[in-house]
Each structure stands twice: as structure tokens, then as C-alpha cells.
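Thread: Modeling a multi-component assembly for a lab meeting

Hi all, long-time lurker, first post. My supervisor asked me to bring a structural picture of a complex we are working on to next week's group meeting, and I have zero experience with this. I have the sequence lines for every component (665 residues in total). Could someone generate the structure of the whole assembly? Inputs are pasted exactly as I received them:
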Amino acid sequence: MVRVKTLLTSVALVSLAASSTAIAQDRSVNVYNWSDYIDEEILADFTKETGIEITYDVFDSNEILETKLLAGKTGYDVVVPTGTFLARQIQAGVFQKLDKSKLDNLKNMDPAISERLEKYDPGNEYAINYMWGTTGIGYNVDKVKEILGEDYTVDSWDMIFNPEIAGKLKDCGIYMLDAPTEIIPASLNYLGMDPDSKKPEDIEKAQELVLSIRPNIRKFHSSEYINALANGDICVAVGWSGDVLQARDRAAEADAGVTVEYAIPKEGALMWFDNMAIPADAENVDEAHEFLNYIMRPDVMAKASNYVYYANGNAASKPMLAEDVIGDPAIYPSEETVQRLYTVSPNDQRTDRVYTRAWTKVVTGQ
Amino acid sequence: MGNFFKRVTIGLPYLWLCLLFLLPFLIVLRVSFSEPVLAMPPFAPQFDLSEGWQAFTDAVSRFTLYNFQFVLEDSLYTNAYLSSLRIALISTFLTLVIGFPLAYGMSRAPMTIRPMLLMLVILPFWTSFLIRVYAWIGILKPEGLMNQFLMGAGIISTPLRIYNTEIAVYIGIVYSYLPFMVLPIYATLEKMDYSYVEAARDLGCSALGAFWKITARLALPGVLAGCFLVFIPAIGEFVIPELLGGSRTLMIGKTLWSEFFNNRDWPVASTVAIILLAILVVPIVLFQNAQARAAEAGR
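Re: Modeling a multi-component assembly
Sure thing. I ran the full set together rather than chain by chain. Output:
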């Protein structure tokens, strides 16, 4: 009997010990961010400093993130939607309001960027800006010169939307983002119309423009162009600023004679904001706030920007940015260029259907 | 006791079907009758049974057939169905052309090496499907293995553009589904009594004639089973056209994806799925009938 009792006690003790260590280690946070969008050291440092384990997953389209969020119970505690998607998701009740008392690093944020973000998140109640950037043209410097002549400067959407010029680049390869919410505003802007227009007849004109240059596009894809540009497989890609700059760096590292550059076209380009928010059904709310607060630390944010080549919404991090980040007009455009950037508002269901239908027509020819 | 056991063995497959087929089907069917809204989940009415009978009748009265009308009216969906049908039919045919000789060869091989041959057919399943399809990107892309080999051998001078075309989709489907064609045909051919063919030859039938009149006829149930096992998953295939196909490869799987992800329109996505199921049920029923008839004839 005694033996049984000892056995039971020791079992109880062991399980107690196990559960207490479990509690100590159990602090975790599940983050769902864009692919190639952070310096992984930041994640390791966060765990080292706070003892919170991170599960870090990645996606490459807002649509995938949104569908998961709308289905609910994603299991993620921090997600990173772009502004237009964020606005709609806030309306759908996907997110919880941030507890600003837990976010003392909010003071580091750039008021100018926070103000722009209010278009999507009035009062900045649900999200903090992570990175922002532009949608422009990435190109292979030597090949474009070879085809279009030494004197050609890449500074215009003509390269994509003018069939005469795009036709010459066709065989060398043009990639385009597979994202109607990026390309349709760019087309409208090129046509001299309001890039934020929701009128079906305007969207149809944009569709006609893209259809007219469709034969020149090799592929519609939202992440493959990084490698394709870096390897020299293609000449031109309509892509996100930082992604193109990552391609530029990979090309330089590979040292195989490929030079990649990024241009913000003079006609204007889309300015977008990727923001961190906490889903309403998140399980690790405290840890999520701790993660956001950690990310808003100037040194952390600078480290992230120095790695991914995107501008951030953190004013205090600016002195810590590398010279080739803060000094690069492709990342931090001049005031004059910023004037030419436009933003778009979220689409309602009906406009989205018109957008997607137009896009399907463009991509599949149906 | 024996009776109880019998009931359990019969009941289990039905329970399985109800849980994993009928129930999900009913959920999808319900969503297809609703409307999209901006909420979690993004459709209404929710049809929440916990809210009592009133909520139930209320939800039923709000059901709409609009989505079915919408899908049937836009040529996009019809074209996507037809294009999927075409790709699935051609792939099934190609798989049969490659799979039958393989299965025939296996069944005529010496008894001792048959298990090894069978193993070779099954072996690819030990690697993840996704990785095997990805591997084809490495083989087919312009600077990939195949082009390197053909150009190195001096057969072609410019790389063949197969990756991101419909041909790549056929290659992917035929490769992935070949075992599903080979195994059922092999199973019927292996059981076949070869003395029938010998008798036909003794009675003056040509080798080809004997093959066509005896072997091919007796293998028919296996061929049918193989064709359906390839055709049915191929028509709804999403991964292979997404990874290997080009932007112009229109298949219903991709259309469904864009309804779901780009339009956030779960009701229309569900409607597309229900119609696809209806298209599939017809061949499945035909197949069942053929099987039943074959079993009858065999008796």
C-alpha cells in the first residue's frame, strides 16, 4: 500500500513539475507574414529576449490571407494584410482593437505614415504599419539596354503598356503581378483616369489596355519574379519595390553578370501599406501585443528594413537604417516622387467581381 | 452475434460516406443557396440550427437560386467546365495508351519478378505528390534538365517552351495518375486465363486478332476502372495546372479558387463545386452500371 502511495505521489509530483515547466515554456505566438519579409534573426532574438516561442508561417497573396481570416479560427495571433484588405477585414469584424497601453513603442511610429493609414484604419485602432512600398518596374539593366538602345531610360509605364515597346521586350520576358488590385489601378493611371475608380466602364477600359499587351506577358505571378529577375531569365517585371531590390541583391551576390534595377514610373505608382493586426479570435493576445511592441523598437524595425529593402512606418528607426536603404530613392522616394504616388480605397463586393472578371479575361483570355 | 457483425461491417462504409461525403456535400449545398456578405464567415443566411425552428424556416425562405443562374449564364464557367473536360479526357486517353502496355507487360512477366515490377509502380507514392510535381518544373523549364539534355545532344538549338503550357499539364497529369491506370488493368489481366488466347490462336486467329478479341475484351473492366480513377480526379485538378500550366490553362479548379479567394464569394464558389459534382456523378453512375453488368455477365 505504501509503495502504491509513493508511486502515486511521485507520479503526481512529476506531472506537476511537467505542467509547471509547460506553463513557463507555453508562451507562444503564431505569426502569419508575407514571404521574404523579415530578417529571421529578429524572430530568434525575440524568443531569446522574451522566452516566447514563435511559429512563423508565410503567404504570398492577400487573397489567401483574407479567405483564411474570413473562415475564422486561423490560429494566428499576428497577421499582415495590406491597407485595402485591412479596411475590409476591419468591417467584417476580423480584428480586435489594439490595447495601446501595452504598446509603449507606438511613440516611435511616423505620424505621416500613421495618418495615411487612417484611410484604411480610422483612428489607427486596429493595426500598426510594418512596411510600405510602391508597385513599379523591375528590370534587367543590360538586356533592356541591348534591346531598347543605350539611351533608353526606364522611367515610364510605356515599357509595359505601350505595345510597341513591350513587344520588343516580349522575347526577353515580361512578368506581371497576378493581382488585379495592383495592375488595374496602374492601367487606369496610365490611361489618365482615376486609379481608384470603381466604375465598371473605367475598369473595362483598363481591361482592354492590359488585353492589348497581353501577348507580351510571359507570366502572371506574384513571387516568382524575384528569382526570375535575379537569374536573368526575364527582362522586366511589374513588381513590389522591395522584392525587386531583393532580386537586385541576389543577382549581385550570384555575380553572374546580371544587374537588376527598380524604377518608379513618372506617370505615378501605387503606394501601399502592409500592417500588423491581431485577429479577434487570437489565443495569445498578450504575446501578440508583445510581438508588435518588439517589432516597433527602432533597432528591430531598422534591422528588418535593412534586410528586406522596404521602407517602414517607424520614424525613430531612420537613423539606424543602412545608407543604401535610407539613401535609395527606390525605397525612400523623394518628396517630389511621393507626390506622384497614389493610394486606392478598398473595393466593395460588386467592384471586386468586376475586377476579378476583368482579370480572368486578361489572364486566361476567357 | 454473426448478424450483429454483419450489420457493423455493412454499416461502417455507410457511416463513413455520411460523415465524409454527404455531410460536407450538404454544407456546400447550403452555402450555394446563400448570399455573400462582409462578415465571418462571408455568407448569409448562416442557417444556425441552435437558434431554433424559426431561424431555420427564416433561413430557408431566404435561399436563392440566383447563384446557379449566374454561373450558368456567364460563358466563363461553361468554358472552364468544357476545358477541364477536354483536358481530363485527353489525359485519360494518354494515360491509357501508356498504362495498358505497362500493365500487359507486367502481367506477362515471369511470376518471380512481378512483385518487384508492382513495387516499381507503387514506389513514386512514397514521395510527396507536391514534390514530384515540383520536380517536373526542374525538368521542363527552359533552362531545365530536359532542354539541357536535348541541346547538349544537338537535337534542338533553342530551348523547348513546355513549362507553363498545356502540354506540361498533360505530362503532369499522365505522370501523376499512371499508377491508378496500371494497377486495375494489371489486376484484371493477371487473373485472366491465358488458355483462351491459346485456343483462339490454335483455331487460326492472328496474334493481333486474339489480343483484340480476347485480351482486350477481358481487360475491359480494369480499363474502365482505370479510366474513371484517372478521369474523375483529373477534371477537378488544381495543383498540376497551377504549378505546371500557363496563365491560359483554364480549369474549373482555378475558377473555383478565384471565386473563393479573389471574389470572396463563397456562395458562387459552392455553386461551381456543386455543378462540377453533378457533372462527375453522371460518369460515376454509368461506371457503376457497367460494373454491375460486367459482374452479371461474368456469372
